[in-house]
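Lab notebook page, bench 4
Experiment: in silico fold of construct C2
Operator: M.H.
Input chain length: 229 residues
Purpose: comparison with the prior construct
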Amino acid sequence: MQSESEFYVGYLPMPAALKTAIRRVIVALGVLAIGAAVVLVAVQHPFPAANFEFQQYREFRGTLIAEPYPALLIPGQGFPWLLVAPGKHGVGDMRAFDGREVKLTGERTIHGDDHMIEAVGPVSGLLSAVAKRAPDVDLGEIELTGEVVDSKCYFGVMNPGAGKVHRDCAVRCISGGIPPAFLARDSNGRTATLLLANWNRALLQHVAELVTIRGRLVRSLGRLTLYQE
């Protein structure tokens, strides 16, 4: 006699064999999901070692450098710290304080040798005398290929702060006065961060893309700046 096959009807108890089969499918799907997650994590590039000291306010003193972008030269701390305002805004015109000793309060953003201060509140002048500074070093004409980013997010306010996933944010930040930066890579894959002076707004259409820029490379107080043609 032909055996009766198990048939599941919604309002009747589920047959034992069907329960076992469903459990096996669920377990298999769970194992596959965990395996896929492990693989995705393993192949993902790690985030860069960048840090934004959110709401860790400090007082800073140093010499203000107004051009090409406002920055604070703090004794013993390498090249100047770029200055920005909260949100997607630059600190505005600081030429009235150029070369003068000032103090301000803000939060630090650090990405390796790249660093920045998000200033909160006013900048206060301490001395009216203008300090002497080392002259810029002209490194000549150069052509470089790399990626345009906004320095604030790339230095650590957002992570990742580069690439196509960050494109819209970078465009808004640069449009709001955040200093644009250029990530140039050498033949060994090492990345150098250059400030982009003489900003050409047409480049907003190519943020997060690989672009080639010609210009004059200058070392100013240790920082590299590319003045576009």
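Observations: Residues 6 and 15 are 7 Å apart (CA to CA). The first strand starts at residue 50 and ends at 52.
Next step: discuss at group meeting.
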